[in-house]
Amino acid sequence: MRILVSNDDGISSKGIYSLAKSLQSLGEVYVVAPENNQSAISHAITMHQPLRAKKIKFFDTDIDAWWVSGTPADCVKLGIETLVKVRPDIVVSGINKGENLGTDVLYSGTVSAAIEGCVFGIPSIAFSYEDFYEEDFTVAGQVALKVTKYAIDKGIPKRTVLNVNIPKCASLEEIKDIKVTKLGIKVYKNNFEERTDPRGNSYYWLTGDLEDLGIQSDTDIDAVKNKYVSLTPINIDMTHYGLLDSVKEWNMKLHE
Amino acid sequence: MRILVSNDDGISSKGIYSLAKSLQSLGEVYVVAPENNQSAISHAITMHQPLRAKKIKFFDTDIDAWWVSGTPADCVKLGIETLVKVRPDIVVSGINKGENLGTDVLYSGTVSAAIEGCVFGIPSIAFSYEDFYEEDFTVAGQVALKVTKYAIDKGIPKRTVLNVNIPKCASLEEIKDIKVTKLGIKVYKNNFEERTDPRGNSYYWLTGDLEDLGIQSDTDIDAVKNKYVSLTPINIDMTHYGLLDSVKEWNMKLHE
Predict the structure, then answer these.
(1) Topology at the third CATH level for domain B2-183+216-248
(2) Contact B236/A48, CB-based, under 8 Å?
(3) Chain B residues lying within 8 Å of A252, measured CB to CB
(4) pLDDT value for B85
(5) pTM score
């Protein structure tokens, strides 16, 4: 089993260290991850600049590891096609510092690394940890190992990514269990704080308050809040199949 | 009708000019678009730097227009919440120089601008033009006006974006009609070209050859190839609902 590990927090983050170490018990691990923090970079790819890559010593391990001067999707592309000389059997991304729940998946570099693996036809999983300030990913690493084992054993369907969120916890025992969920909805308001620079010009910081949308049953948001690991199958085909027929009934004509 | 127009090619591109001009016949148009080209930036948002914005004269028009020093999703967020003092009734993105078909939507800044409008609960459409080298978007602008009229008239369902691709053409008559489609699949191989810099170090340019996957019936790719405008409803909820039950049957247990 060859496992390609990436993330969006950057190659020197604690989360990717814990993930790569944990997965070593399943096979040969390769790490290809961004040189710098790429949070909220989504599925961006680098087209107008060339990429650099460098093989490095990965913490205290002997894992083959490279940083790439680009995005998570760049890392997975370059890892699969150029850096790692063997095709991975699975791509695993994370463990992200901070949750990627509901609407977050649209912005997440962590999830996009896994989606890029899936675009290559390789089963892929993204892991995120609820605590944005945590530096200890030991328990999250144990969860990631357990879930990855299930995924390998059962087989991730084609064109599907598993998005996994792990609740904040001090020990594995604090987590109740694993729930299969749908994505919830997150809406932010008051997203920008306007400031004035020393030369009198305005600038804007992204911030934002989460709107309280009440309980969203069966969602990843609700599961993690209640101390469950959430696992959501993500469809990389974004066609809204349920609407195809009704939009066809609009009966659009270009030449009328 | 208040129409917010954005794009990913940048505020000085011909495509956004044609789009904004065409849509003026439907109501009040506002333009908020990136200062610089943001192609393939996907749904990235700027968290670690502040944003600048500046009101400018938009070509030969009197349209209220701002550039933003960020991504398409930043533009739509900042436009709705801060720059434009009224809430738009519709967000329209494009017209992109180059198609956004099938798997492209994962990487597209054009589509992500529309998705961001949809996250705000505003009906949203993305327009792209098949010709990457074209500088004349007059016909594409006519198509965009026609499709936007239909969308306003029929109503875009919640949490749905319309992704519209316009085939390369010299006149409107060359385009056969509008087809409602699903997204096709695009797979690239040999994505990177390795070069050596004057100091002997490797670097990599993203390139890539499209694999021939044969005819993909009922897809946007096939429609545009056959000179139809493709219109694909996109679901911003990426949950793979069709797999929820089968993944639940994996019967995962954290504590066994």
Answers:
(1) Stationary-phase Survival Protein Sure Homolog; Chain: A, (3.40.1210)
(2) no
(3) 146-147, 150, 177-178, 180, 231
(4) 86
(5) 0.96
